[in-house]
Specification:
There is one protein chain. 50% of the residues lie in helices and 15% in strands. With 381 residues, the protein is α+β, with helices and mostly antiparallel strands.
């Protein structure tokens, strides 16, 4: 259920000011340290950001998809690592539990997830499994009242500090996604270990690492849904996650455009501000137009999802368009800044590297194209 307009306006205003006054001044530090300060994580917990999408009954804010998208846009105005700090709790790390959890599972985990006491991760990708997510090789063998899980998951966001993993593992011999089940796997179980965080091109401060499962005894009570429903759950989770990422892309694009306008209005060449030169204006116009189009698509799709409409196609389209769009905007930003855009002091090169990941995770652009085409063919146009 949506918040009343005044309450939601107060929330977005708080997030907007927090981003501008607290987070943006810390961007260079997060880049240098490859870590979000503990004090900031504590502040985010106090603000309720870890529980944006979790129902009020479990201590969350219970935002609708449209409301969550607007908050994600505001968070996109700063380095993506800050949003990633609580992003898995809001999205892929909690939504399997929200969508398919039993009353007991929800009561046990959701209040602590919403409070940020527990950090969650979503473990689908494997060394040999990326875009072909139905080819999961991690095994879960039933042994009385437990399943024994063995396998390795790769590039798992927030794995370095996660307390609870939603793990996709193969429980049967059925081919593709039909043999995959979902499990809630606490980090404390024997046989669970996490590798060293990877060194990445961008998004410093947002860690990814391997998750290793060595004959981990997971109680049957920790299975999400029935056997063989894991892939279906994963795809439903990704529908919401893709919309959230699309909204973040819109926010980053808005940030870049604002920075470009400010810089172009001050930087002078040929006797006038470069903002007065038509080819600079053309790049700003293209960026603004594309950002507006992406914002409209995201918010319209979010509203449709809240209304109960099937938005598999539209979520894929939003993620595809917005992630490609922000890449183009970032590239133009470097061009508008010129040499300064290539220098770390201005932060443009950092955002240029940061946004590249958006076209890869939660389904590459090519996977989104396949989904869009498949769903369009199903609908007859």
């Amino acid at each position: 259920m949506a918040l009343d307009p005044d309450t939601f306006a107060a929330l977005t205003d708080t997030v907007r000011r927090y981003v501008a006054e607290r987070l943006r001044p810390l961007e260079a530090q997060v880049e240098a340290d490859d870590a979000v300060p503990d004090a900031v994580v504590a502040e985010m917990r106090e603000m309720g950001l870890f529980g944006l999408s979790i129902a009020e009954d479990y201590g969350g804010l219970g935002l609708t998809m449209a409301e969550e998208a607007r908050v994600a846009i505001e968070m996109g105005h700063t380095t993506p690592a800050f949003r990633s700090t609580f992003g898995t709790n809001v999205g892929i790390g909690s939504q399997g539990l929200v969508l398919a959890g039993t009353a007991e599972q929800k009561a046990k985990w959701l209040p602590r997830i919403a409070a940020g006491e527990i950090v969650t991760s979503f473990a689908l990708t494997e060394p040999g499994v990326g875009s072909d997510s139905g080819a999961v090789a991690t095994r879960a063998v039933r042994d009385g009242d437990v399943y024994r899980l063995s396998g390795t998951k790769r590039y798992i966001t927030n794995a370095d500090r996660a307390d609870l993993f939603t793990v996709m593992a193969r429980t049967g011999d059925a081919p593709g996604g039909r043999g995959v089940s979902a499990f809630l796997v606490p980090r404390t179980l024997a046989g669970v270990s996490v590798g060293e965080p990877e060194k990445k091109m961008g998004q410093k401060g947002a860690k990814v690492a391997d998750l290793h499962l060595d004959d981990v005894a997971v109680p049957v009570a920790n299975r999400l849904g029935a056997e063989g429903e894991g892939f279906k759950i994963a795809m439903r989770v990704l529908d919401r996650g893709r919309l959230h990422i699309a909204a973040v892309c819109v926010g980053v694009a808005e940030r870049l455009i604002a920075d470009c306008v400010a810089y172009a209005s001050e930087r002078r060449q040929f006797g006038k501000a470069i903002a007065e030169h038509q080819l600079i204006q053309a790049m700003i116009a293209d960026s603004k137009t594309e950002a507006l189009a992406a914002r409209a698509l995201v918010l319209e799709t979010a509203a449709a999802k809240d209304a109960g409409t099937d938005v598999v196609l539209e979520s894929a389209a939003a993620k595809y368009y917005a992630s490609e769009m922000v890449g183009r905007v970032a590239d133009r930003a470097v061009q508008i800044y010129g040499g300064a855009g290539y220098i770390a002091d201005y932060g443009i090169e950092r955002l240029y590297r940061d946004v590249r990941l958006f076209r890869i995770y939660e389904g590459t652009s090519q996977i989104q194209q396949l989904i869009i085409a498949r769903e369009t063919l199903k609908r007859g146009g």
